TrEMBL record, chain B:
The protein, known as: BLUF domain-containing protein
SMART domains reported in the protein's UniProt record: BLUF (SM01034)
Organism (species): Hymenobacter guriensis
Pfam families per the UniProt record, alphabetical: BLUF
Chain ranges of the BLUF domain: 1-92
Length: 607, 152
């Protein structure tokens, strides 16, 4: 009977744990093991942790159930083991029981994979919801608002701590409030979605028409518990269609007074009207623009995607919304939010579209990006400094340790206290050394990931760096002359290049001559043997180069004590350049200026 | 060279036979006159894009606009082009009887259209897509955008 059992059964007899009975199922786990052989010699697929437990369970004598999962060639098992006794009540062996849990294991695996996919989807969804121009929200069955995307806070000006459920009806225009509450409650009660418009109070107190659409999240047979929705601003489009209801002339009058690109399109999606401002902005006539000419105003790479979206909107009646660069009459592209929606009146459906200039917002985003870059550059500098400093401080520490070693051997101490002290100093030194090593390794591993070498557009990177130094440049009335024509590209790590140039330029600004405005020349060129070089020349105070009392590239070394600074900058520049296989040359005339020449690569290390 | 796009409505629903007749007639004339392009027909909705030398295209449009078989002719595009986007003249419609039409030269099932050629500016490809959509309605089996190039 044991043989047909849908579980594996085996006995291990005596203190040597030799196989006794083995049923067919158990074969999968124990493999070639035969009765009489020791389990340690023929463990088959039994997991080693399990094997290690067996002698203990045998000697323990007490009842034990141990569980382990062993995956045989075809199945996965839960293993349990317990001692069995002879007639005298003495332990005679162990009974192994293997229960097939392949199903559960596969299910667990699937659940794990599913969890991973869900996490990915979740992250992607998050990025999508928080970067799309529309606001998104989630409401539960009781009407509590459990989520609104950051765009909602930006639009309403509410603090992130706002009690969403309590506050949102108060932000709805009083004339719309009851209707909106009623319609959304009805949607939740019947388990359907909703689609309505209302005026929402903007951060500046102005009410704007919004389109609110939501759908329930359904997991049959349960009733929906969450409704997910989106809010789109439809103010202008709505005003336009109101005007249109009063007649085509009214529509044109309104549209022509709006300093935004406004257009209408037939039900087929073909534009039949552009307002005056569109002509002014694009410098094109209605005929030149034609029924789909707007798409030709977009960035070439963005045209196809925008066209596909428009066709989809026309086919489905769904509103169109996206951010695109639109070409102005002078060839300049400016970022716009393009929105269009379909509204019907007696003469049938028609599309109302607007393109609002959001260039300023984009600029702002860019400034933020620059600030972020500056921060990360500062961070990088700090890292480099810690790394270089820890590296350079190790040498003196080692020297000290050597000295102490020597001292201990040669001197004899009568006072035992002194020996203890010496031991403590030694320990302290060893600790310092290992701290320095740790520091260096931490920073290095961190940096290895963030320092990809790429071909850099020198004029772009230099411009970025100078943007970061703008306040100082303005304050000193400095003129910066950038000449990159001779060597416009450089293969280097961006962060390193930024650190080097930033330090040299800010030094040049700092040590400028009081009698004249600073002039700094940045020149990228190639040496006769084709090696890239950057020259940073200033007309500042100048410095002593060969003065041993004022070494320029040493840590904390400072030439001009009347100027603020830590003396870290040049040291850092030197470290970075040499760590990348290059070198740094400097010439200077006191009172006239300094020229740094950075040889990015040594001839052999580059190709 | 220019191309012209228009939308119109058939006066009477055109039968497969009518359409075949129109296809034969137009193919013959167009070949002789160097006109290329495409015609869409479905449930009385008509859209056509054709390209050719300026005077020939204008004259053709004038003839088509007068044709008693359709009305409400709305010219959507009439503009110069640098090069042809279609190599011949073809027609796409939902035939009442599918058999036989498959084999017909110059005939395309509405949703088996080749993608717009790369030389066609996206604004013009978009016109073609929109009039096709206007004539046939969205293809339930396909996303609507298969004729527009994917973003590079
Ligand atoms: C929807 C439609 C599309 C037509 N397309 C063409 C065409 O592409 N080429 C053409 O020569 N005639 C076309 N015709 C036919 C012309 O209208 C006209 O009948 C034909 O050119 C003969 O003109 P004629 O009898 O004045 O010579 C089309 C007619 C209709 C109703």
């Amino acid at each position: 009977m044991l043989r047909q059992l849908p579980a594996g059964v085996a006995t291990l007899e005596g203190p040597d744990l030799r196989y006794g009975f083995i049923n067919d199922r158990m074969r999968e786990l124990v493999g070639e093991g035969q009765p009489g052989q020791r389990v340690t010699d023929f463990p088959g697929n039994l997991p080693s942790v399990f094997l290690e437990m067996l002698p203990r369970i045998y000697t323990d004598g007490s009842e034990h159930t141990a569980k382990a999962c062993a995956c045989g060639p075809h199945h996965c098992y839960d293993l349990s083991v317990q001692p069995y006794h002879d007639e005298q009540g003495q332990i005679a062996g162990l009974l192994l029981l293997a229960v097939d849990v392949s199903e559960q294991e596969a299910a667990r695996q699937r659940a794990h994979e599913l969890a991973l996919t869900t996490r990915h989807l979740d992250a992607r969804l998050r990025v999508l919801t928080e970067t799309a121009p529309l606001m998104t929200y989630t409401v539960d069955a009781a009407g509590a608002v459990t989520y609104v995307s950051p765009q909602w806070y930006r639009f309403t000006g509410q603090p992130p701590t706002a009690d969403l459920t309590a506050i949102w009806p108060l932000l709805v225009h009083p004339d719309d409030r009851l209707r909106v509450l009623y319609e959304s409650a009805a949607g939740r009660r019947t388990g359907t979605g909703w689609n309505f418009e209302y005026r929402l109070r903007r951060y500046d107190g102005v009410y704007r028409w919004m389109l609110s659409r939501a759908l329930p999240e359904v997991h049959p047979p349960e009733a929906p518990f969450f409704w997910h929705g989106a809010l789109t601003e439809v103010h202008l489009e709505r005003e336009l269609s109101e005007a249109r209801r009063r007649g085509e002339a009214e529509l044109r009058f309104l549209a022509d007074s709006i300093p935004e690109l406004v257009w209408t399109a037939s039900a087929e999606g073909l534009v039949d009207y552009y307002n005056q401002f569109t002509m002014e902005y694009t410098g094109l006539t209605k005929e030149e623009l034609g029924p789909t000419g707007w798409v030709g105003l977009l960035y070439l790479q963005e045209q196809a995607a925008a066209a596909r979206r428009w066709v989809q909107s026309v086919a489905s009646g769904e509103p169109f919304e996206g951010e695109y660069r639109l070409r102005r009459h002078d060839g300049v592209y400016r970022w716009h939010t393009i929105r269009a929606r379909q509204l019907s009146d007696e003469s049938g459906p028609r599309w109302f579209g607007t393109c609002s200039d959001v260039e300023e917002q984009y600029r702002l985003r860019q400034v933020l990006q620059t600030q972020y870059d500056e921060l990360s550059r500062a961070h990088h500098n700090l890292d480099t400094f810690v790394y270089a400093a820890s590296h350079d401080l190790r040498q003196p520490t080692n020297n000290l340790r050597g000295l102490f070693e020597e001292l201990r051997r040669s001197a004899s101490f009568a006072d035992p206290e002194q020996a203890v002290m010496l031991g403590m100093v030694d320990t302290a030194l060893a600790e310092l050394d290992s701290t320095l090593i740790d520091l260096a390794t931490t920073v290095r591993t961190q940096r290895q990931q963030q320092e990809p070498v790429e071909v850099l557009d020198m004029s772009l990177v230099l411009e970025e760096i100078l943007l970061g130094l703008r306040p100082e440049i303005m304050q000193r009335g400095a003129r910066i002359d950038v000449q990159v024509g001779e060597a416009p590209g450089l293969r280097y790590s961006r962060a390193n290049l930024r650190s080097v140039v930033h330090n040299l330029v800010s030094n040049a600004l700092k040590f400028s001559h009081p009698n004249r405005p600073p002039l700094i020349v940045l020149r990228s060129y190639l040496t006769p043997d084709g090696q890239p070089v950057l020259e940073v020349r200033d007309n500042g105070l100048g410095m002593h180069i060969d003065d041993p009392a004022h070494p320029i590239f040493q840590l904390f070394a400072r030439q001009h004590t009347h100027v603020d600074g830590t003396g870290v900058g040049l040291y850092l520049v030197q470290r970075i350049v040499s760590s990348q296989g290059g070198h740094l040359a400097v010439t200077s005339v006191i009172g006239e200026g300094t020229t740094f020449t950075i040889h990015w690569h040594t001839p052999s290390s580059s190709s | 060279m220019k191309h012209i796009v228009y939308l119109s409505r058939a006066v009477h629903a055109l039968t497969d036979h009518d359409l075949q007749h129109l296809l034969d007639q137009s193919r013959h004339d167009n070949e002789q006159q160097g006109i290329t392009g495409v015609l869409f027909y479905s449930h009385g909705n008509i859209a056509q894009l054709f390209e050719g030398e300026d005077e020939i295209a204008d004259a053709l449009f004038a003839r088509i606009a007068q044709d008693g078989r359709h009305s409400h002719v709305r010219k959507l595009v009439d503009k110069p082009i640098a090069a042809r986007s279609f190599s011949n003249w073809s027609m796409a419609f939902h035939p009442l009887v599918t058999e036989g039409f498959e084999a017909l030269q110059g005939f395309l099932l509405p949703h088996h259209m080749p993608p717009a050629p790369d030389s066609l500016p996206i604004a013009d490809a978009l016109v073609v897509e929109l009039v096709r959509l206007a004539v046939f309605g969205p293809d339930p089996s396909q996303p609507y955008h298969h004729a527009l190039p994917l973003a590079p």
